[in-house]
Design brief:
The structure holds three protein chains of three kinds.
Chain A: H1 6-29, H2 36-39, H3 59-87, H4 89-111, H5 121-131
Chain B: H1 15-50, H2 66-75, H3 87-104, E1 120-123, E2 126-129, H4 138-159, H5 163-194, H6 199-204, H7 212-215, H8 219-231, H9 243-246, H10 256-281, H11 297-320, H12 326-356, H13 361-396
Antiparallel strand pairs in B: 1-2
Helix pairs in contact in B: 1-10, 1-11, 3-4, 3-10, 4-5, 5-8, 5-12, 8-10, 8-12, 10-11, 12-13
Chain C: H1 2-15, H2 18-42, H3 46-66, H4 70-95, H5 110-132, H6 145-152, H7 157-179
Helix pairs in contact in C: 2-3, 3-4
Chain lengths: 159, 407, 181
């Protein structure tokens, strides 16, 4: 049976070889003239004034966590799906109990706002109401002068 | 029970068999490369048509060699590694994107007569399948490889040591794992009707128009399409490289051949995902044999036509739909697709078990729909509760706009 | 003549004893896994450590496939590499954006860690030896997914349902962690 994996391994070797040879070719053909500005992190031409944010919203972590749970559930589904005709009603009931247990905790999780993202329509309106006349163009972020050339006269203190 | 396996590899593996394997592997490699080249051209040309432009038309007839020209150009471009980068991981990431993209194609049967025969063809006196390999775990290999492909994206963004790639890669990997669950559940429904994990068996169970898109009731097919598009980071789910927010996304810092490999992997994934969709739901190479004299060509032709239909619709989607917001993306994945796929899987299973026990399908459907409706109502209630709570909190506090929230 | 002999040698290598090929594959996998495991605990970079862990887990999956337990092998990739290490990496990325070596990883806790590691090795190794002894795996008849399904839903039905309770606990734990933010 293991012979079935032989072509897969062969294709893997070929693909990796192709990528490696491309690197070699690029090394031989491409110019190498690095300097500071090329090697700096891309910031749309602005000199970075702030470090990369250290933390991300915890929701990303939650997504990964919920994914593990569903992944395990799905893994248990596969052998049952293949054999479910032979196992019959007993297996169906067992799987139903299993899915209900996972689904209800998933519902509880959603009810507690674990997968709540992004803006709410009313919140946006409330923002422009609260700041009244100060918000000239809601939704346009003020970029400011950070990182810009101070001697450039065309930029005048934002909108 | 008969174990599905390529008859070529069951016996002793001698030199001749080894050469056949080599031919198959090299052929599929070349096939993939050429089809990626054509796919990139096809997409650019089609999008141009849809937008009333001409598109590439200089390199070769109708600009068909444009991709080749672009690829050759990238070989001559300077290959930069940012000074902040984590060099070994930065170099590793393109491999992790490209190699899985290649391997998925190994399990796709691209031809073979499944109607009158067993899907094998004779080569140099050996019977073999028209697919590189047919491991018993077939489709699970696809899922495993797509979970490895997440690493390519995630590590590329992290190792760049730069803001936009990091944001793009965290977004991308959260998106990919979210839709992987829906993808897995849609595939599980196929196992209910096919009764096997091997792609060859799945295809042969669909021969003579018995396609899974009908036997599983269309819904898993649609879920697979949506989840597949999101898994590929294609429009309208291409938040990963939303230029207005993230520049180029996870591969912002990649240049030259390293970028070319990401690009190659991206388009290769479009092709292999379409091929997997054809295999799972549209009967693979199944179709009528119209001219008996060249019987062998028809399955390959049908497979290619089905594949082309998918590729066309991917391009069409890109030309038609605007990009959706990240919260809409997550809501669609977690609150619609996954519960729907789970419910449909259980519904089909209940119908199958009911049919085996001789129950009348009407009460089974009624009870199942009632149960599913109760589940949907619970979920809807939970979503409304969460939204109301958040609105109360956010309107109550002064920090209305949480800067990190939509990252 | 030499070519013929080489061909014959090749033929016998590929056809004769598949066990030989399996043993070679096992040897390669084992060496890679041991090296990766050592690098994982000695490297100062947390993300690199997670990646070495991925190599070890992939090696485990490879060994499962070599032993004919293909479903378990793919499960290993799907759950451990595809989900759990991704969770680790998310945890690392979400809490520290900075790249590079992490001094905190190399503290005086190292001696304790070695002790715990040896203890875990002895306990799990002892358990495996105790329950299986020198029983051989039937490599000629690989385990079928359908058989795994049958076994789960007959012999191991109680652990199966217990898993659902465990997952429930995990999800509730997740929300408790998240609510504190």
């Amino acid at each position: 049976m293991l012979g079935q994996y032989l072509p897969v391994v062969a294709l893997l070797v070929l693909a990796a070889l192709f990528a490696a040879l491309s690197f070699v070719a690029s090394r031989l053909l491409a110019p190498r003239r690095p300097h500071d500005r090329k090697l700096a992190p891309y910031e749309c031409g602005i000199i970075p004034s702030r470090e990369t944010p250290e933390r991300f919203p915890v929701r990303f972590y939650l997504v990964a966590m919920i994914f593990i749970v569903f992944d395990i559930e799905i893994i248990f589904f596969y052998p049952w799906a293949v054999a479910h005709r032979g196992i019959g009603l007993f297996g169906l009931v067992a799987v139903l109990i299993f899915s209900v247990a996972v689904f209800e905790s998933f519902v509880y999780l959603i009810g507690n706002g674990a997968l709540e993202w992004g803006p709410i329509a009313e919140v946006r309106q409330a923002v422009s109401r609260r700041f009244g006349s100060e918000v000239v163009r809601p939704g346009v972020r003020q970029v400011g002068l950070e990182g810009r050339d101070a001697g450039n006269p065309t930029i005048e203190g934002g909108p | 029970m008969v174990i599905a396996a390529d008859p070529l590899l069951l016996g002793p593996i001698g030199l001749e068999v080894f050469l056949i394997i080599l031919i198959k592997v090299v052929a599929s490699f070349v096939l993939l490369m050429v089809s990626v080249m054509l796919m990139v051209w096809f997409e650019r040309k089609l999008i141009s048509d849809m937008q009333n432009r001409i598109g590439p038309d200089v390199a070769g007839p109708w600009g068909i060699l444009q991709t080749l020209a672009d690829g050759i150009k990238l070989f001559f471009k300077e290959d930069l590694i940012p000074e902040n980068a984590d060099r070994p991981v930065f170099k590793l990431a393109p491999y992790l994107s490209l190699v899985p993209a290649f391997l998925v194609f190994a399990i796709v049967p691209i031809g073979g007569d499944f109607r009158t025969g067993d899907g094998t063809v004779g080569w140099f006196g050996h019977r073999t399948f028209l697919q590189v390999a047919d491991p018993p775990m077939g489709i699970l290999l696809f899922l495993a490889l797509s979970s490895v492909a997440v690493y390519g994206v995630m590590l590329a963004g992290w190792s760049s040591g730069s803001k936009y790639p990091l944001l793009g890669s965290v977004r991308a990997s959260a998106q990919m794992i979210s839709y992987e669950a829906a993808l897995g559940l849609a595939i599980a429904t196929v196992f209910l009707t096919g009764g096997s994990l091997s792609t060859h068996e799945i295809v042969s169970s669909q021969s003579n128009w018995n396609w899974n898109v009908a036997t599983t009731g269309v819904v898993p097919f649609l879920i697979f399409l949506v989840a597949g598009t999101a898994e590929l980071n294609r429009p309208p789910f291409d938040l990963v490289e939303a230029e207005q927010e993230l520049v180029g996304g996870f591969h912002t810092e990649y240049s030259s051949i390293r970028f070319a490999l990401f690009f190659l992997a991206e388009f290769m994934n479009v092709i292999t995902m379409s091929a997997i969709a054809v295999t799972l739901f549209l009967g693979g190479p199944d179709g009528p044999i119209l001219v008996e004299q060249v019987a062998w060509i028809w399955p390959i032709l049908w497979f290619s036509l089905k594949l082309l239909a998918f590729l066309f619709s991917f391009v069409w989607l890109r030309a038609t739909l605007p990009r959706i917001r990240y919260d809409q993306l997550m809501d669609l994945g977690w609150k619609v697709l996954i519960p729907l796929a789970l419910g449909w899987f259980l519904l089909i299973a209940a119908l199958n078990v009911g049919r085996d026990r001789g129950w009348s399908p009407v009460p089974v459907v009624l009870v199942s729909v009632a149960v599913l409706w109760a589940g949907a109502a619970m979920l809807g209630g939970a979503v409304r509760k969460a939204r109301a709570e958040r609105r109360a909190i956010e309107l109550g506090s002064d920090e209305v706009l949480d800067a990190g929230d939509g990252a | 003549m030499i070519a013929m002999a080489a061909l014959q040698g090749f033929d016998s290598l590929m056809s004769g004893d598949t066990v030989v090929a399996q043993n070679i594959a096992f040897g390669i996998l084992a060496v890679v896994m041991i090296v990766a495991a050592l690098r994982m605990v000695t490297t100062g970079n947390v993300v690199h450590a997670a990646l070495y862990l991925v190599i070890v887990l992939a090696g485990v999956a490879g060994i499962f496939i070599l032993l004919g337990a293909e479903f378990v092998g793919v499960t290993q990739v799907l759950v451990y590499i595809g989900a759990i290490v991704v969770l680790f990496l998310f945890g690392i990325m979400l809490t520290r954006g900075a790249l590079g070596e992490d001094e905190e990883a190399d503290t005086e806790k190292r001696r304790m860690a070695v002790l715990v590691g040896v203890l875990v090795l002895v306990v799990t190794g002892g358990a495996v030896l105790d329950s299986f002894g020198d029983a051989a795996v039937n490599r000629a008849a690989p385990s079928l997914t359908a058989e795994i399904g049958d076994t789960i839903f007959s012999q191991y039905i109680v652990p199966f349902e217990a898993v659902s309770v465990l997952l429930l606990a995990a999800l509730i734990g997740a929300i408790v962690v998240a609510r504190k933010d």
